[in-house]
Amino acid sequence: MRTHHNFFALIILIALSSGSAAAQNRYAIKNVSVIPMNREVVLSNQTVLIEDGIIKNIGNSGKVKIGKDYKVIDGTGKYLMPGLFDMHTHFFYEHGKHVNTNETELKLMLANGITMARIMTGHPSYLEARENVKTGKWIGPELKVACPQLVGRWPWSPDFKNYEIVASAEKATKAVKEFKEQGYDAIKITFMMASEIFDAVVKAAAEENIKVVGHVGPIVKLPKALAAKQQIEHMDMFIEMLLPDTSYNHGQSVSDFNIYSKAAWATVPHLDESKIPALAKSVKDAGIYVTPTNYFFITNAGLPFTDEEIKQKPDYNYLPSDSKEEKWKYRNSYLKNMAPLESREKYVHIRKKMVYELWKAGVPLMAGSDAPEFFVVAGFSIHDELKTMVDAGLTPFAALQTATVNPATFMEMNTRTGTIEAGKEADFLLLDKNPLEDIQNTRAIHGVFTNSGWYDNDAVNNLLQQALVLGQ
Ligand SMILES: [Zn+2]
Fold first, then answer.
1. What CA–CA distance (Å, rounded) separates 344 from 99?
2. How many angstroms does the Cα of residue 120 sit away from the middle of ligand 1?
3. Does residue 464 sit within a domain?
4. 3-state secondary structure of 165
5. Domain range holding 69?
6. If pLDDT is split at 50, 70 and 90, which confidence band does 24 have?
7. pTM for the full model?
8. Burial (Cβ within 10 Å: 0-12, 13-18, ≥19) of residue 123
9. H-helix or E-strand containing 260?
10. Is residue 297 domain-resident?
11. SS3 for 347-408, per residue?
12. 399 alpha carbon – ligand 1 mean position (Å)
């Protein structure tokens, strides 16, 4: 009898505790304007019911009944949109001897409305971070992690933790298989890679059913990358298609690292922007996704911020002091050798026009910050990238697509996230203002919802406070 008694007591205890857990996980957002992002519309006066991180029901506030055990969030005057994706970011940890601050950086991302981040180079500690978020041990966006970047050679400091030298096709094939086995979500490639090694990577990745993402180098060049259907970052080797002929300056202009090359900048006056629509069509025909990371290139290489502007960005408070020092050094050496203003203005104009024409041609674009390059810090910078998309000519709705549905579709997560619909995960932002009226309103974050729960205004501010340790 005694054992029975204990047995029943245990059952009751389990029932009680799971009952109260369920109640804690039921939320109703009342009287809110919903921007579902599956079409261009604002649904006013909606109630959204959430249970255990899933949207249970969504409909007119007058019709949707809110049960007693729901925690009610008043959405009056507010806008609900899907959480943001940053499709190109890195942790500070990969830079030289920097200490591991992954956990804190994730808080900074979440406080800025990022509910899904793709870490663009791999490290075992990033796979751990991904797992820690998944199991609820850490607070942060869901993570996807690309493998350590495959390079033909590495001319920089060996202190970096983010690369794997693949000097032969055999080594490349082996690396792709191993990284897939280790659980990485994509194969990241970088420039300085011979053609036959690129071929081996693409072939092995197809066999392993894993996507090839990243840079396009001056040896591989754009047509080959398009034929391989690589997902391209930074619009690498796009600007080279505007050269007067393919042999001009060995086919190189100001893609990527060539922002440091005088010879590359000297090609800019000769670039023919009337070739941009044909370029956009060839990218569209290849059926690939593109992450322009235009904010980073424009405000650091094209028309750099002043020192004062850098210090006034919120990002600056979250930059570790060792990084700060290094970044000022890089910046000052860049400024010293900077190309003439006229060339940099044309470069900025072309980068914007390429984004606009890609969008017009129907190429799915994805928002990526490339934090923490230069003074760009993960979190705040995704809003800067969205604004840069609008500056290039996208509508606010199209810009929002680059950080919601487009990346969700690319990563085959669109059946569960990226839009606000019943049955999907509750990854969203509650904004004080309408981002379709002004893209800058994505910064007016009142609260953030993820499957780990609801972060109201105080909780969001608290995360930002906690993340300030990064800057100390
Ligand atoms: Zn990057």
1. 35
2. 6
3. yes
4. strand
5. 24-81+426-471
6. low
7. 0.94
8. buried
9. none
10. yes
11. HHHHHHHHHHHHHHHCCCECCCCCECCCCCCCCHHHHHHHHHHHHCCCCHHHHHHCCCHHHH
12. 20
Q: Given 410, 443, 459, which residue is the final one in a domain?
A: 410
CA 133, CA 452: separation in Å to the nearest integer? 9
CA–centroid distance, 256 to ligand 1, in Å, is 10
Clarify whether residues 122 and 161 are in a common domain: yes
Distance 197 CA to ligand 1 centre (A): 21
Chain position carrying tokens 């570790």: 320
| Residue 54, CA distances (Å) to 278, 327, 420, 422, 449 in order | 43, 42, 10, 8, 11
The pLDDT tens digits of the residues spanning 153-209 come to 888 888 888 899 999 999 999 999 999 999 999 999 998 889 999 999 999 999 999
CA gap 116, 451 in Å, rounded: 11
Task: Find all residues with CB under 8 Å of 136, minimum gap 6, and list them.
Answer: 452
Residue 209 and residue 441: Cα distance in Å, rounded?
Answer: 39
Query: What is the CA(88)–ligand 1 centre distance, in A?
Result: 6
**In a domain? residue 8:** no
Say how many Å lie between the CA of residue 195 and the centre of ligand 1. Answer: 22
In a domain, 9, yes or no: no
Q: In this model, does residue 214 exceed pLDDT 80?
A: yes
**Does 57 lie in the same domain as 101?**
no
For the chain, the average pLDDT equals 93
DSSP 425: B
On whether both 37 and 180 belong to a single domain, the answer is no
199, with CB counted inside 10 A (0-12, 13-18, 19+), is middle
SS3 call for 452: coil
118: its two tokens: 């793709």
Report residues near ion ligand 1: CB below 5 Å: 120, 370
Identify the weakest region by mean pLDDT among 16-30, 82-96, 290-304, 373-387: 16-30
Q: Pairing state of beta strands 445-450 and 428-431? A: antiparallel
Q: In the structure encoding, which two tokens stand for residue 175, read together?
A: 């690396």
Q: Tell me, what CATH number does 203's domain have?
A: 3.20.20.140
Q: Check whether residue 70 and residue 92 sit in a common domain.
A: no
Please check whether residues 317 and 459 belong to one and the same domain: no
Task: Report the number of distinct structural domains present in the chain.
Answer: 2
